[in-house]
Amino acid sequence: MRKKFALFILVPGLIFLLTLYLFIDRWVEYGLEYAGERTVGAKVEIDDLVLTLSPTGVEFARLQIANPQDGMKNIFETGKVKFAFDVGQLLHSKFIIETMEVNNLVLGTKRSSDGTLPEKRAERMRAQQAPAATTDSSAAPAPAQFMKQAAPVLQAKEEKKTPVFDLDRIRKEIKIDSLLSVQNLRSVQYYDSLKTEVPRASEQWQTTLAEIDKTKPKIAEIETKIKAVNVSEIKSLESAQSALENVKRVYENANEVSKTFNDRKSALNDQVDRFSGAYGEGERLAKEDFQSVVSLARLPDVSMRGMAELVLGKEMMQNVAKYLYWIDFACENVPSGALGGKTEKEEPEHRFEGQNIHFPVEQVYPKLWIKKIIVSGGTDKAQDPEYFYLKGEVRNISNDQRVTGQPFTAELSGTKGGTTSLSFNAIFDRRKDFPVDDYHAKLSGLRVADMQAGRSDFLPSKITKAVAGANIDVNVPGNKFESTSKIAFRNLTFVFESEPKTTVERIVRDILASLNQFNVTLRLWNSGGKFDIGFSTDLDDQIASRARKVIGDEVARIQNEIRSKVNAKIAEKRKEFETLFNQKKEDVTSRLKGHESQVNEKLSMVEGKKKEVENKIEEEKKKQTEGVKKKAEETIKGLFKKN
Amino acid sequence: MFVVKLLSDFLNILRAGQTPRQVAGGFALGSLVGLSPALTLQGLAIWFVILILDINLSAAILAFALFSLVAYIFDPVFHALGYFLLVQADFLKGLWTALYNAPIAPLTRFNNTVVLGSLVGALVLFLPIFWGMKKLYIAYRDHLHTKIEQWKVYQIISKNFLVQWYLKIRDWGIVP
């Protein structure tokens, strides 16, 4: 044994152990605070941390985590926190905690000092986090930054223009006559084009009529031929049959003339009817013209959709941005972990650094696993009515859920001032390739004392008294996002900061002033990387109903004026077309009628002659039969006489 | 400077008034640590043994420095040896599995092929190095010491500032 060993080893060893004993609590405290600040991005303060040997663990008197979005508030603070490590796993450098006790957990407490990190420190931490994030991204898909995705949509909502809806101004500024130019009225253009088409069509009709006129000699010939057949001059059956043949030929000719005429008449009528049918299209265009002129006049939509969003949207959109921040935070900071099952033979990381060979383990543990955190909100008596005191359980916080096989869950409930209650259930599942986060929060009886409503340019106001309740469901599978929040305001009072400047403001203000309650549904989702926000409320219906009563008549009057002027303008053009068309149509119709009567007259003449000839043939046949009969009788009589 | 210090150390070791067993023991234990690739639990334990036992510390440091330099050359051999023991020697699998599940053993990084190979290699070489060093030391003391002391190089090195400083420290009794 070395003689100077005590001096050389033991004394420095003892000094080292003494230093460790005196400072290790502070070092661990600092280490935890530093790690927390790196994660949260704001100050994390632990008070009076003590390492305990039996059980081997840690306890501290207070934990404060500052809100990175508001440095003068904490996200939460706790009372005494106590936990013990599994010693066996600690020797494997694994931090396994069966149960952590968190007492007096309070949300949103005010801070006595600013919790924002000094810029230099924050920058250093960001720089340290950046490469870590890059390394992590190889293990799991990069989390979607919903706040970033939603920013343009929220910005658009913020910048949405207030509708100008001042009837006096509309009345003064609207110049209906200037809106009735030909360029704006398609029906007028349509009738004008018809007016130019009618003479062109009429020329074609005249050509067809001229073709019809060409059949007149044929008709005259038919007349001559039919008159030439004189039935009284027919004396024999043979001559009667010959006459019938002639009449039949003339009849065929007459039928042919009639058919040709009917075909041409039908085609002509079709062409004329096309113009008659144009009235339907003209009516349709006239309706469109009315809508178009109304739109050019910029008459407001009496439904007044979106008014409620203008009044309530700003505050809600700001809250949306806040809660998207925390959803992003959870996506980025609940670790995905790597696959637990490592292969028996791994490739060496670098040359000559050897190869780590892994053997079967009795139970696999992750590096960190807090199996259960029991949260208590403290005693009712000690509670400050200004804050939420939470109680419940948080389970399975680990750095690798694939190893634990358990998702990180939180079931918390809380009360504030004995009247407001909150329940929060969340599950952060990182066991599969794509992370899935699910949240459900329910809030009831929340007293709203100072909520900004309206905008600086539209009904600036405040909700000074209300009781709100909310049901919020959020589902974040991978990079997708779907959230529905139903918020109900009851027993509310609005205070308006200025007098209404426009009719719309007056209407909305009247509604809000008389309002006692309303409901809002806010839906946020992203599809195909595009973020969208849907905002609906029963306030819109109430505002629309009142708007219809107040301004509906005036808008209707302006609309009627526009309608009558549009109609008059169209009617004028329509009349011009109608006169021209009717004139041409009349000409065609009268000529067709004349021709038709001629054709029909000749046809009936031929049919009559044919009938006459057929009758004559019958008569001649009868005569012949009687002659033969008489002759036969005489012959028989002669025979008897001879005998 | 480092080379001068190393030579000076070596000569001082040989010149120091300790028994051959102390010098050879220090050298052999130093070789054990020097052949290990990185800071391991067993490495710390060996250093602790070196500090406790009354052996030549200079010899241990010298051996650590020398074997650390040459260990890189033998790393492929150590890797092959470690791989054989950890993966191919089936009869040892039970032992490794038990150690792998034991609380402190993983801190030795025994499951790394180079760590295990170099440890086993160093243990195998421990006795030959010990006996070799012992023989060398006796031979030096009996035959070469007076001759070397007359070398100019020796005189230059022994008068070196660092060497003088080292001798002063050593003479306080802290370092043997």
Describe the structure.
The complex is a heterodimer of chains A (643) and B (176). With 643 residues, chain A is an alpha+beta fold. Among the domains of chain A are: 169 residues, no CATH class; 200 residues, no CATH class. Chain A is built from 13 helices and 18 strands. Chain A has an 18-stranded mixed sheet that branches. The longest helix of chain A is centred in the last third of the chain and has 104 residues. Chain A starts with a helix and ends with a helix. About 4% of the residues of chain A have low confidence. Chain B is an all-alpha fold. Chain B has a domain of 122 residues. Chain B has eight helices and no strands. In chain B, helix 2 packs antiparallel against helix 3, helix 2 runs antiparallel to helix 6 and helix 4 packs antiparallel against helix 6. The radius of gyration of chain B is 19 Å and the shape is elongated. The model of chain B has no long low-confidence stretch (mean pLDDT 81). Chains A and B meet through helix 1 of A and helix 4, helix 5 and helix 6 of B.
